Automatic annotation (TrEMBL):
Record-annotated membrane-spanning stretches: 269-295, 318-342, 362-384, 415-434, 446-479, 500-522, 732-757, 784-804, 824-845
Descriptive protein name: FtsX-like permease family protein
Protein family: Belongs to the ABC-4 integral membrane protein family.
Signal peptide start-end: none
Pfam families in UniProt: FtsX, MacB_PCD
Membrane topology: Multi-pass membrane protein
């Protein structure tokens, strides 16, 4: 009880000095709890939606997706004959059954031909208005569609695009474009995460989405009273026999849940990983805080020892303070985490993914996880300072000798740090020298961990040399004030090393990812310049296949020399060694594709692969199965017959674009796959006539203006799009890393603030002999800047080493260009100096306000 009282008194006496450490714990716990609440809320939202939109039993085509997704190779949804509806109605236990038609392989535009599809990755769904949808939708204005000239839209999409009753809507599918006017607006009675939903009457939906009548995509079945979904499924299967997919509501909901589970898990664990980095950075802050508090209370600790307190009691006293800090910071962090989750939900709403606070989910495990993590991390971080406090002898403490200096411990620390750093460097070397990316990635991970630990441990040793160099370059110009700032940073290398290490971790990751991202862009750009011979690429950024109407429009564009179609087909390949490779893909293209993409071969001529009954294979596949030019491969097309194709070329694996592709001509594939089963094009390539590139570019864009789901890009556009995609990903990662950097800045602030308190008497004496307030503040700012730059140098150097090694692994996948983004690296280094200046504002201001006489009188 005495230990607890002492700890509580010390905690309250130093509450101002504890505040920043508590904020670090708060931020880290808030990020963890916010992530858990946010992802749990997303899961709840989707679970409610899937449960509400699933009928008791659903009957669909055998080839339909378990999730109801209707994208297929031919652009049409898999269908079942209308006769199935009558058969289902005749099954035992059926209360009612209704045939529906819907598709997600569509684009919807307004009267100005602007795309109404979600920009958040959500689906665009066009279907027939039916009883199952009526359970989750309420018509708030107008009426349901009753004829071919009417369409109903969900309220979220209407609000987002300013749609009103009577507005013209165009539905573009593989069948063609159907135009109708808005007859009604319906609002979801459950949360709609971001889909755009449009409804037609059943007959119009059949013609618009499938191109005929007498078929459905689904039959929704409702069970009679007292009949379970499982029993109803058995009854329906007994009535229909085989050939159809029959699912209960639970099975449909579970399939939908799994379809979004991977996305949510990636988001969840990525955000938790960045929270872990923030916790790691926070450890340095807490270690520094308690180390300095212990040093400042040396005499107090000596008195406690002199009156009978044991080492364990002193140790427990410091750990009890850490426990209080962890509990306070964690409790506040849990509350802040809920607020952060709500903020993330609002942010997602701005991006188009609607999440309602009505579905806010706070599992009991969330606050428990936050509290346990926050408390455990804080107590562990305070263990070493507590152990040092317990080792102070009473006499040394009463003489104010401070914590015992242990030169041997410093030498051991330096040796261990160098050993870890050397081991990390060796692992990074082995990663760069690996022959396979999978093997190298293991060495890379080990090298990152060991080198990071090594730099953290050896940081105090490096601080002495690096700070002196930075002082000579940056601080000496400030005269005596600069030299004093340098000596202050060197006074306690362990403290400087720990403070700099906190900033080092975040900046190392920033530098590493910058190098990797820049190298990926540079490598892809280099490959495009070397291999792509086409002028224009037509594709859908949302992944939609290219409809025949678009191909026809492109072919009719004036000024184009050639248009190349490109399809992907699934097939099982049986090689002469008797082995069958299932689930392979054949890339079918027009023969002009050899001009559009100059792919390197290790044997044969790729142009020959486009001859009748011919194909190419990639180098790895040929080596695995002993294939050479002239070998014959049996190709069993998923939607066609089995062909025997002759290998005419073997392509190199040392490429980026179409790596691992196996080519054949569309004409060859058409001999074995029926026209009705032939997939639509994935991409379309076009090249202009000599000297007409600019005009052809404008004309091709104009020709496809009625199809906003497709984008026409020349090579410059394509490079910019690639750069933007990687840049957006990096910006998101930098945003998440900003939390760790904020915690590191708090560490610099706390270190300086406690250092000012520690040097109160010294500051008073400096003021007494003529140091002005302005000079004092400058000294503290310069000390902060040099600590920040020390951390930045270590972090950027370490991160560039990691990034360069990662690029060597990417080179095994064809990304051969190492590109160091020096503007980014330089900008981060300069920004670190401003971080140092910012961190010193409050400590420098407080130091300047000290009363000189009171400061001198301080013991």
């Amino acid at each position: 009880m005495t230990v607890l009282k002492t700890s509580m008194r010390n905690f309250l006496a130093h509450k101002g000095r504890m505040a920043l450490s508590a904020v670090a714990v708060l931020l880290s716990v808030a990020f963890v709890c916010g992530t858990l609440v946010f992802t749990d809320t997303m899961s709840t939202t989707f679970d409610k939606l899937f449960a509400a939109t699933s009928s008791d039993v659903t009957v669909s085509a055998k080839g339909a997706s378990d999730t109801g997704e209707t994208t297929s190779d031919d652009g049409k949804p898999p269908v079942i004959p209308a006769s199935v509806l009558d058969e289902v109605r005749g099954a035992d236990g059926v209360k009612s059954a209704e045939g529906t038609v819907f598709s997600t392989s569509v684009t919807v535009v307004d009267g100005d031909r602007d795309n109404l599809s979600p920009t958040n990755g959500g689906p665009t769904i066009v279907g027939s208005w039916n009883g199952t949808d009526a359970r989750t939708m309420e018509i708030t204005s107008g009426a349901a569609p009753e004829g071919p000239d009417q369409i109903m839209v969900d309220a979220d999409t209407a609000d987002k695009h300013g749609l009103e009753l009577g507005d013209e809507i165009g539905v573009i599918s593989v069948v063609g474009t159907h135009t109708a006017r808005i007859s009604g607006i319906a609002e979801f009675t459950v949360t709609n995460p971001g889909a755009a939903v449009f409804y037609l009457d059943t007959r119009t939906a059949q013609r618009t989405l499938v191109g005929g009548s007498g078929v459905y995509t689904n039959v929704n079945v409702t069970a009679a009273a007292g009949v379970s979904d499982a029993q109803l499924k058995k009854n329906v299967l007994a009535e229909l026999g085989g050939g159809y997919k029959v699912q209960t509501a639970e099975e449909t909901a579970e399939a939908n849940r799994k379809s979004v589970e991977d996305f949510m898990n990636v988001m969840k664990y990525a955000m938790l990983g960045f929270a872990g980095i923030a916790f790691l950075v926070g450890i340095f802050l807490i270690v520094n805080t308690f180390s300095m508090l212990v040093a400042q209370r040396t005499r107090e600790i000596g008195l406690m020892r002199a009156i009978g307190s044991s080492r364990k009691q002193v140790n427990r006293s410091v750990l009890a303070e850490a426990l209080l800090l962890g509990v306070v910071g964690s409790v506040l962090g849990v509350g802040a985490g809920v607020g952060l989750a709500v903020g993330l939900m609002n942010l997602m709403g701005l991006m188009g993914m609607e999440l309602s606070t009505d579905d806010l989910t706070i599992a009991w495990t969330t606050p428990v996880t936050g509290l346990v993590l926050g408390v455990v991390v804080t107590v562990l971080a305070a263990y070493l300072p507590a152990r040092r406090a317990g080792r102070i002898s009473p006499m040394a403490a009463l003489r104010d000798a401070g914590t015992p200096a242990d030169g041997r411990a410093g030498r051991v620390r330096g040796a261990v740090g160098l050993l870890l750093t050397g081991a990390g460097a060796g692992a990074l070397y082995l990663a760069g020298a690996a022959d396979r990316a999978a093997d190298g990635s293991l060495w890379l991970g080990l090298g990152v961990v060991l080198s990071l630990l090594g730099f953290v441990v050896v940081g105090p040793v490096l601080a002495s040399g690096v700070v002196r160099v930075l002082g000579a370059v940056l601080l000496r110009v400030f005269g005596p004030v600069g030299r004093m700032a340098e000596r202050n940073a060197l006074r306690n290398p362990r403290r400087t090393g720990a403070t700099g290490a906190a900033l080092m971790i975040g900046l190392a990751l920033v530098a590493c990812l910058s190098v990797v991202g820049s190298s990926m862009v540079a490598s892809a750009t280099d490959q495009l310049d070397k291999t792509v011979g086409t002028d224009f690429i037509v594709q859908s950024d949302s992944g939609q296949l290219i409809t025949p109407q678009v191909v026809e429009a492109a072919r009719n564009t004036p000024g184009l020399e050639r248009v190349t179609e490109y399809k992907v087909l699934d097939a099982d390949l049986t090689t002469p060694d008797g082995k069958t490779s299932k689930g392979e893909t054949i890339n079918a293209a027009d023969p002009t594709y050899v001009e559009d993409l100059r792919t390197e071969t290790v044997a044969g001529d790729l142009a020959d692969a486009y001859r009748p009954d011919s194909m190419s294979v990639f180098e790895g596949f040929a080596e695995e199965h002993g294939l050479t030019v002239g070998s014959q491969v049996k190709v069993d097309f998923r939607d066609g017959r089995t062909a025997t194709l002759t290998v005419r070329a073997i392509t190199s694996d040392d490429v980026v674009i179409d790596k691992g592709a196996m080519y054949a001509s569309i004409a060859t594939v058409a001999e074995y796959v029926p026209a009705g089963k032939m997939p639509l094009d994935v991409l379309l390539f076009a090249s202009a006539e000599e000297g007409r590139q600019d005009a052809a570019y404008r004309d091709l864009k104009a020709a496809l203006d009625d199809y906003p789901q497709y984008t026409v890009r020349d090579q410059t556009d394509y490079k910019e799009a690639l750069k933007d995609q990687i840049g957006q990903l990096l910006n998101m990662v930098y945003g998440l890393l900003a939390l760790a950097i904020v915690v590191a800045v708090l560490g610099v602030v706390n270190t300086l603030a406690l250092s000012v308190v520690e040097r109160t008497r010294e500051i008073g004496l400096l003021r007494a002999i003529g140091l002005s307030r302005r000079q004092l503040r400058r000294m503290i700012r310069m000390e902060s800047v040099v600590i920040a730059l020390f951390g930045a140098l270590l972090g950027l150097g370490l991160g560039m080493a990691w990034g360069a090694t990662a690029q060597q692994l990417l080179a095994l996948e064809g990304l051969n260009v190492l590109d160091i983004p020096w503007p980014t690296i330089t900008g981060v280094f300069v920004a670190s100096a401003f971080v140092g200046l910012f961190a010193a504002l409050i400590p420098a201001f407080r130091a300047g306000r000290m009363n000189v006489l009171n400061a001198i009188a301080t013991e």
